[in-house]
Amino acid sequence: MVYRATSRRRGSPHKRLNADMLRKISAAMLPFYKAIATRRSFAVQWSRAVVHGNLDRMKALLCSVAPFAAKQGLGTNGIGYFISFLAHPPMLYYTNGTTIPPGTVQFTFEPRVHRAIAKAVFPLYLELARNRCFASALAKAINQKDQRAVTLIIRSLIPSTALKSVQIEDHGFALLFKYPYSKYPYRNLLIREFS
Question: Model pTM?
Fold first, then answer.
């Protein structure tokens, strides 16, 4: 699949995802996803901090591998985590994270599943960080609500059978993973939020 740069359309920056935001978030998160995927002890510590709602520990762990990401907003709900990047002052953020869908279970976040997801999404975030044309193509497809294009673009870099669905959600994307060794599905999100 070939991705070409496209001209920018006029429109409110508050309503449109852009390649620069995708690249910024991806570049910041790559070292974290690499650490989760390759260092079991780090992933276990991270999961423990998520489940216990220990934001100080999460921040320290994140700072040790991804200092720029650690300077962003950080949250947990006991079943996942959320790292928020300021997109347009004063109130628009994009959040990247992984969580079990709410209402499924409480205080559970499995390191083995998180490691598998980190390994699966790493090529996507790597390509978004280093390839502006790719990031532009994905941003354009999301902004145009072109579900087929978003699915094709993302699945081109995440061929895992554990990836059960790709959805446009909140001016970003939601990836649903389900592994046979876990009772619970997990979602990797890059979505817009307002504070």
Answer: 0.91
Please answer whether residues 125 and 33 qualify as being in contact, where contact means their C-beta atoms are separated by less than 8 angstroms: yes
Burial 121-154 (b: 16+ CB within 10 A, else e): bbebbbbbbebeebbbbbbbbbbeeeeebbbebb
Distance CA 81, CA 127 (A): 23
pLDDT band for position 77 (50/70/90)? very high
The token duo for 175 is: 């990836």
The confidence band for 194, taking pLDDT boundaries of 50, 70 and 90, is: low
Q: Does residue 12 sit in helix, strand or coil?
A: coil
Give the residue from 189, 188, 191, 169 showing the smallest Cα distance to 178. 188
C-alpha distance from residue 4 to each of 7, 109, 164 (Å): 10, 38, 28
Residues 6+ apart with CB under 8 A from 67: none
Short-list 73, 77, 84, 74, CA closest to 53: 77
At residue 133, does pLDDT exceed 70? yes
Query: Is residue 187 a contact partner of residue 173, using CB atoms and an 8 Å limit?
Result: no
